[in-house]
Write a structure and sequence with these properties.
The protein has 676 residues and is of the alpha+beta class. Helices cover 37% and strands 20% of the residues. It has six domains: 61 residues, Helix Hairpins (Orthogonal Bundle); 231 residues, D-amino Acid Aminotransferase, Chain A, domain 1; 110 residues, OB fold (Dihydrolipoamide Acetyltransferase, E2P) (Beta Barrel), CATH 2.40.50.140; 76 residues, DNA polymerase, domain 1, CATH 1.10.150; 76 residues, DNA polymerase, domain 1; 78 residues, BRCT domain (Rossmann fold, 3-Layer(aba) Sandwich). The strands form seven sheets. A five-stranded mixed sheet has the order 2-13-10-3-9. A five-stranded antiparallel sheet has the order 16-15-14-17-18, with no helix packed on it. A four-stranded antiparallel sheet has the order 5-4-7-8. The protein starts with a helix and ends with a helix. The protein binds 8-methoxy-2,3-dimethylquinoxalin-5-ol.
Length: 676
């Protein structure tokens, strides 16, 4: 059955809109509509195409996952070789590269380089003919790669059809397929919860996902691309410089790195490298170095190639994030909520500038799956602030290995039985606050900066206090810690004891949100504590709330509501709360304005740069006024609060026309709820 003209028109319109929203989302990093609205448009198009199969075109956004699984990948001969890059492992090697370039070009002045991060992913080549994606191939040996077209089509940031006009009839772009850190962590978290295999690192994750024979599996992986270079182009160079050519790509729908910049000479390269090294772990994707390319295309041609590398480009590498070391022992740790986590004790090794001696092993299942045993040589990986992980065992060193690790049946701290959580993966000590480890962790959490913020009450001190039986519950901190008792503890002089007593006194004056967070209710983090405080305004109403009442609070789902409800029905928790209040812990209850009457209700703010007060404190005050405080700037941001030395977020805000205010305006906003 042929579709009526208005349906044909509607399908065309939907395709065009979906492509436009994809472009804003992936290329400009500036979503125009909520994901749910986008899904609705895509669904409408799917339904139309199901009803009238004649409407389907190969470049329709519904056709990303269409192909059946392959038996094997085909081979593709690259029309122009896909080269690799030479490396500079230190500053001296970068200096030599720059010297070689200047000598060959016979120029006395500085060379202009295009600089951008080198993503830790998988290089591929995309071929567009008449603006349609016709082929995607891996690098392979540089001459021949694998045909991964069906899989690459499932990556939503790869346009199936180029936007606008002006592209050459044949356009081959070289890009890196990568898995953003958030997607990688989310994937592994969910795999761990389901007891499935985790991905070793974002690079392996990208490569492994793209090399799936079934495109449906690739489609489920959060992959993305950045384009960095060119293969065959009908009509020759797109522009006189590399950077100008790359900057043409976004308007055709092809994402490029937002970090691309031109720098001058070796000093420019070094500064850029240092700047990015500082922000390396904030980018949202992993990079293993910076690529510097001679920007002028004529100069590139005159430099040419050596073996498989262009003479006009180099990758200045960062120190590796993976190293091998020896596993000395596996201990088990008891967390604040009793969760038992195996911890690897390692021969100390320096990974990306930090000496690592411990790594998390998550759970027994993870140890079994990776077959990790004491004495093994292991590959260790550290990514920014993320706790180091053991990627895998290096086999073949020795025939005799230690027996497989067994989790204990009893809590190593208190001897209570260990029980499995509902999901069967997490083991928990059943001792509750009887268990000294849980008690210590609960008190450390209560005193921590974002909770009651008791300055000077460090972890070691809490350990001593619990071990000596001076403190059994948070209320004991206020009842039992006298200057005399404190001064008698290890590493505690009279002065520190007096300071700690002052800090305890100061901490009594708190907010409801902090108090709720400090109680350590399972799954109630800072944000949920804020939502609860804001919604109920006082503790009594929260304590009396039913599970249904709790479900209405933003950020509270069925599991959290169950935990909160259960917490306030345990006699010992009610006793601790009463004791804390009678020890003098206090806060101001709030008049609860209707959410939509709060001065900053519905407004999204971003804090950037150096501010004169801790961010957490400012964030808390803004949230109390109803604002949402986000970590990144987008089209949905209402205000950016910029402190000193604000960088890329400020630039982005200016580009998007977001209102930028300084700290003075912020203070006035907090006082009055109105921007000056
Ligand atoms: O593998 C690569 C990653 C990134 C590259 C590359 C790149 O530029 C940002 N550039 C070239 C020229 C080559 N490989 C060969």
């Amino acid at each position: 059955m042929d579709a009526p003209p208005e349906t044909i028109e509607r399908a065309r319109f939907l395709r065009q809109q979906i492509d436009r929203y994809n472009y804003h989302y992936y290329v400009l990093d500036d979503p125009l509509i909520p994901d749910s609205d986008f899904d609705r448009l895509l669904r409408e198009l799917q339904l139309l195409e199901e009803k009238y199969p004649g409407l389907v075109t190969s470049d329709s956004p519904t056709q990303r996952v269409g192909a059946a699984p392959l038996a094997a990948f085909g081979e593709i001969q690259h029309r122009l070789p896909m080269l690799s890059l030479g490396n500079a492992l230190d500053d001296r090697e970068l200096e030599e590269f720059d010297r070689r370039v200047r000598e060959r070009l016979e120029i006395g002045g500085q060379v202009v380089y295009a600089a951008e991060p080198k993503l830790d992913g998988l290089a591929i080549s995309l071929r567009y003919e008449a603006g349609i994606l016709v082929q995607a191939a891996t690098r392979g040996d540089g001459m021949r790669g694998e045909d991964v077209t069906q899989n690459v089509r499932t990556i939503t940031s790869v346009p199936l059809r180029l936007l606008e006009n002006g592209w050459p009839d044949v356009l081959e772009v070289r890009c890196e397929v990568y898995m953003p850190t958030a997607g990688f962590e989310e994937f592994n978290k969910s795999a761990l919860e389901k007891g499935e295999k985790t991905l070793a690192n974002p690079r392996n994750a990208a490569a492994g996902s793209l090399r799936q024979l079934d495109p449906k599996i690739t489609a489920q992986r959060p992959l993305a691309i950045f384009c960095y270079g060119f293969g065959l182009l009908s009509g020759g160079d797109l522009a006189p410089t590399h950077s100008a050519a790359i900057r043409l790509l976004p308007k055709w729908g092809l994402p490029v790195s937002p970090e691309l910049q031109c720098v001058e000479g070796l000093t420019g390269c070094r500064d850029y490298f240092q700047q990015l090294a500082k922000r390396r772990f904030e980018l949202g994707y992993e990079i293993d170095g910076i690529v510097f390319k001679v920007d002028d295309m004529r100069q590139q041609r005159s430099l040419g190639f050596v073996a498989r590398h262009p003479r006009w480009a180099i990758a200045r590498k960062f120190p590796p994030q993976e190293k091998t070391t020896r596993l000395l022992a596996i201990d088990v740790q008891v967390g604040r909520t009793g969760a038992i986590t195996p911890v690897a004790r390692l021969e100390p090794v320096n990974v990306a500038g930090v000496t690592v001696t411990n790594a998390t092993l998550h759970n027994a299942e993870e140890i079994r799956r990776k077959d990790i045993r004491v004495g093994d040589r292991v590959i260790l990986r550290r990514a920014g602030d993320v706790i180091p992980q053991i990627v895998r065992v290096v086999h073949g060193e020795s025939d005799s290995r230690a027996p497989a690790f067994e989790m204990p049946a009893q809590c190593p701290e208190c001897g209570s039985d260990l029980v499995r959580d509902g999901d069967g993966v997490v083991l928990r000590c059943s001792g509750g606050l009887f268990c000294p480890a849980q008690r210590k962790e609960a008190i450390k959490h209560f005193a921590s900066r974002r909770a009651l913020d008791i300055e000077g009450l460090g972890d070691k001190l809490v350990d001593q206090l619990v071990e000596k039986g001076v403190v059994e519950s948070p209320a004991d901190l206020y009842r039992n810690l006298t200057p005399e008792i404190l001064a008698g503890l290890e590493r505690m002089g009279e002065k520190s004891a007096a300071n700690l007593c002052d800090a305890l006194e100061t901490s009594k004056d708190t907010t409801l949100a902090r108090f709720l967070f400090a109680l350590g209710i399972r799954e109630v983090g800072e944000t949920t504590a804020h939502s609860l405080a804001q919604y109920f305004g006082n503790l009594k109403d929260l304590m009396n709330a039913s599970m249904e009442d709790l479900l209405v609070v933003p950020d509270v789902g069925p599991v959290v509501s169950q935990h909160i409800h259960t917490f306030f029905r345990q006699t010992h928790n009610l006793e601790v709360i009463a004791e804390l209040k009678s020890a003098g812990v206090r806060w101001k209850d709030m008049e609860v304005p209707r959410a939509d009457q709060q001065p900053l209700a519905g407004k999204t703010l971003v804090l950037t740069g150096t501010l004169s007060r801790p961010r957490a404190e400012i964030k808390e005050q803004l949230q109390l006024l109803g604002a949402k405080v986000s970590g990144s700037v987008s089209g949905k941001t209402d205000y950016v609060i910029a402190g000193a030395d604000a960088g890329s977020k400020l630039e982005k805000a200016k580009k998007l026309g977001v209102v930028v205010v300084d700290e003075a305006a912020l203070e006035s906003l907090i006082q009055s709820g109105v921007l000056p």
